[in-house]
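Human:
Take a look at this sequence-structure pair and walk me through the tokens.
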Amino acid sequence: MNHAEQSIPLISVVIPAYNAESYIQSTLDSVFNQTYQNIEVIVVDDGSNDSTQSILNAYPHNVVVIKTENKGVSHARNTGIDAAKGGWIAFVDSDDIWLPTKLEEQIISIGECQWSHCDSVYIGENQSGDVKRSDYSHIPRGNVFEELIVENFITTSSVLIKKSLLNQYGKFDETLACLEDWKLWIDIAHENPIAYCDKSLLEYRVYSGSTSRKARSVMPIHIELIDQIFKALPSSTHYKKLKNKAKIKSLTICSYIAEEAQDYRFSLYCSYKAWTEAPLSKTTLRRLIASTINQLVDKPK
């Protein structure tokens, strides 16, 4: 590899797309508007039955399109990784938007790390576009394993990572219906520090139909994953405390998501379970009281 290739490496941008006609053009335009130009763009059409393919046909010379049966986002991402020619992989979902300097700022600031992520803002339903991911959680850098097993603060559309690192850890688990990204990031973070660009270089779309917003389906999978993760760790007081924090965090987040969906019964269930994990916590008690009130005042439509 010559000096130019070392300083300006090829980045393969992997975009999984399923029935993405509403947003895929905006996503692609944000990728092609990057100030970092040495990229290849791979869209994996995960069995779409809308006009996604017609939109992709407008980019015949710039986009590698791979059509597959509908096998889910993990299979689509893994297919894109396998096809990538670049030594670096960047992910962006087909409804998210990158700011123009996203890749450039990450590759400049990554240092000796083999992967990086950045801050983001929320767009979409009931979102102002001003609220950042970091407004909700502290986002660390470096050796983040213990913080990551408590809360997933890594947004997949913000990740830039060496392809060799993904291959080393087996890529995304295709058996999981959700949270496949969190599982992979935990595996990688156990031995690999991560760089963090604290600028909001991603617009992350939130809407009621997204998998991450379906509390009833996500919560049991999340709790099961937490049990699996901590089963493989030392049975120490330290990790028992972290496991307790992880469950409280998961249950509390699901309570809020269910509340946003006006599923007050499940919101109350989640907040009650969180409170039983930490009955002396003012935070879990306040959430329990708030969700109880919501359930009591909710009127059947």
Q: What stands out?
A: Residues 22 and 210 are 14 Å apart (CA to CA). The first strand starts at residue 11 and ends at 17.
